[in-house]
Description:
It is built from 26 helices and 18 strands.
Amino acid sequence: xxxxxxxxxxxxxxxxxxxxxxxxxxxxxxxxxxxxxxxxxxxxxxxxxxxxxxxxxxxxxxxxxxxxxxxxxxxxxxxxxxxxxxxxxxxxxxxxxxxxxxxxxxxxxxxxxxxxxxxxxxxxxxxxxxxxxxxxxxxxxxxxxxxxxxxxxxxxxxxxxxxxxxxxxxxxxxxxxxxxxxxxxxxxxxxxxxxxxxxxxxxxxxxxxxxxxxxxxxxxxxxxxxxxxxxxxxxxxxxxxxxxxxxxxxxxxxxxxxxxxxxxxxxxxxxxxxxxxxxxxxxxxxxxxxxxxxxxxxxxxxxxxxxxxxxxxxxxxxxxxxxxxxxxxxxxxxxxxxxxxxxxxxxxxxxxxxxxxxxxxxxxxxxxxxxxxxxxxxxxxxxxxxxxxxxxxxxxxxxxxxxxxxxxxxxxxxxxxxxxxxxxxxxxxxxxxxxxxxxxxxxxxxxxxxxxxxxxxxxxxxxxxxxxxxxxxxxxxxxxxxxxxxxxxxxxxxxxxxxxxxxxxxxxxxxxxxxxxxxxxxxxxxxxxxxxxxxxxxxxxxxxxxxxxxxxxxxxxxxxxxxxxxxxxxxxxxxxxxxxxxxxxxxxxxxxxxxxxxxxxxxxxxxxxxxxxxxxxxxxxxxxxxxxxxxxxxxxxxxxxxxxxxxxxxxxxxxx
DNA sequence: AGACCGCACAA
DNA sequence: TTGTGCG
DNA sequence: GTCT
Length: 656
């Protein structure tokens, strides 16, 4: 009897059903992430059922361990072999509040297994007749609520409930415990009842493993903890020895990119180092290949001359400075930058984890490691490293969709707008160039229309629908008006219907609200990006001002300097010191992260907002900060994250 | 067919 | 109440 | 727009 546990950080489950398997597998195959999957024969050959887990929408997170533990040859066991289900909850904050549910059709008994970023609940299935037809709705909220309830309670859940309370949704992931004998051999098979996340005893190290003789030191920066964990396990399992210090014994150093290398390692030490410095990718590729692959393409040169590299020590003290800079949240620039940084990251992780054979063309296979290291070498020393843009491969599509996002938003059709927004995210992550709509069929968020649109774009290079919009005067004016601060879709439409067509027209309109007038007056100013140095000036200026004089709670307005015309849009939020951390978290964003944190808080019986973290007031939901219940005391963002059990993210990492 | 955030604030 | 903007 |  074995409990299959959901690894940390999993948030998505895909069940491949008989008949559908191949389609889905083909879909999966297109994601580099899936590669690991192919290194497991039991999956490769005859999967009837398999469960793959993805980290968020970053498909690249599927890992060997995940698949190994979760791919489950149901054909062998048959549903009857299923004795227990453990269900993992993790909010999916990529979507806004849509309810997702996973379906079960049986009675079960459940209790909390553990809590944490993804809380785990054990379900005991009654009776051997477990129908996995996934018919009945099982609702997220039910589980969420249950997290705080300790004693097992029997539930028959047939209804579907709305996920309320927070506008995040919960995704439920399922893993199995089965009584199957034919499970891929693994010792430590004694029965493990589960209340704790059962610690998988990894298979014992194999002295003959492909990595035997290696003593490795892992540079962890820039690597997702889940992946790291898996790599470590793999290394050990395959005979390598892991050093926690960069000592003489080390024969191999692994690093995600040359960037991470230069940031984390003492150069002198590195210069003296005689061993090999390899990209983690080598590890992945070797695992996939089942043997050590040539190190040629993965070796990083140690360049002692890399002196314009930021001081490594900076890392420890860096945070303070950063948070200073953004104590006041100012605007597009900063946001934009983090976005770009992030995209860069994604690209990196794609490149490094792609170890596929099929989806990539042979040429890209051989050339990519080179590109990887060389492009990164080039980046060293470029302070912001905003060099590369995201995987641009399908830019034609995402750009067009992006325009539609804006247009629909301007028109007030948020739903549709958001649909495109989601589709972009999906398309953007594809590691190949779309050549036909078939290639996107079945991807989440891509339905009939998206497929059609994509088809049109890849064949004609444009989208008639968009062209239509762009030439339509109504759409154009409404979009334009909507760019004015304070004017939304509704107002824009009214103005259009009143006959206005240009911003100048609006100047004579007397029905505008105060902020709209201002927004109009300073239209160009507001659109002008604020130079970062100016943001910093603002901050220091404000520091002084703020010290004497009392402050407004919130200010959304325009900023200028005495004697200067140009105005910038600036928001001020003022928080008492004791709840400052909460304000900071909330206003730093991003929205997705906020939803996640809030949901997490809720699942633990708290309510989080920008004013604090409150024990949930049972009953009427509890109004913001009211009810005499004071916020928990937290001084720093870190404390908030820690308290909630959410892995710490630097501000620039919060673009989820 | 009907779902698709929730809140505070200003007009 | 509605619209708007915020994450 | 997509999803159930």
